[in-house]
Here is the input.
Amino acid sequence: MKEVALAVIDYFKTKMLRLSPAALYVYVGMFLISSALSLGLFFDFELSYGPFGSSFSIADRQSWPVGVQYVLLFLGLISFGYGLIIVHPRHLKRVQEATLRQRVVVVEHRGLTFAVNKAVCDAVPPEFLGRREEISIDQTPYVSGNSRVNDPGKSLEEVLHIRRDIDGRVKAVDKNDVTVIYGGLASVPFTFLTGYLIDDDNDVEVMDWDRFNGKWKHIKPTQSEVTEAEIIGLAEAKFADEVILALSISHRCDLQVLADVFPGLPIVHMDTGDYQPNNHWDKKQQGRWAEQFVKLIRTLGSTKKIHLTIAAQNSVVFNLGRTYDRRNSPALYVYQYERDEDPAYPWAIDVPRTGNMAKIVRIGT
Here is the structure.
């Protein structure tokens, strides 16, 4: 029963109150007015037809006291009028002021050949007020038909300027009036690096593509139970100079392939055990995984180099990149997985700990 009540409240907030604060007063007013005037509640219909003509009449059933009906009608008119005449104009004025003052920077990341014909900007929820500023990271010219990255170096160049582009759009705007919204589909290393570069200089919200329903969805807190991933192999790797860190979220990483590509290196496996394409829509759940990731990096603080591979949805990878602490972490290589190549992890991004001079590192170099 509690879950049902919370779902109803969430629906009310998201579907009704988003339109305008006046919606509450208008809807309540309409309900009270319709209740007071409802023929089904307070009146009888009488419709007759005979050989000498027809007649139509309405008779007051008086099922409720007349005074109650008048009170409901009066309250309904007051609520309806207050919402429509007073609250709604105030809301419009606030929206106009916010639109002039605030900025919503929408970053759309296109890095796969998977066709998405709906822009992220068009799907931004209406509660994010402000003038829209669209920025595109387009890596599709360097991606082949099976979403294989043909030119990692040129693809990297498309990402490195993202912080500069955001700052250029909002340089005259107070930081508190800027919201950055990221959404996209791209290779794991570039998505992680984008999150790392955008960081938390502004309020950052994330959207992800729902392939089942064909639309962009906002990653936000839900009432779902939050779970933790299982950490395997940490004790054996704690004091090693180089470590493989595998994050299995949307599906399981192939640990045998990792062992073949990086022979002799210990593997730390962060495993959710919940390999489903829709296990990531809860912002709180993503936050818990990110917290575990940060703790793992800190635990491996004496390690000199971490080889990171992630099997997760785009929004999860982006948020993991945002949490990476550039100052107090080992060197981090984020790898691209190509199942049909040899080696299956042909290249990685060396994530910088200062500045944004990331570089492509190929296996064997």
User: Anything to note?
Assistant: Confidence is low (pLDDT under 50) at residues 11-17.
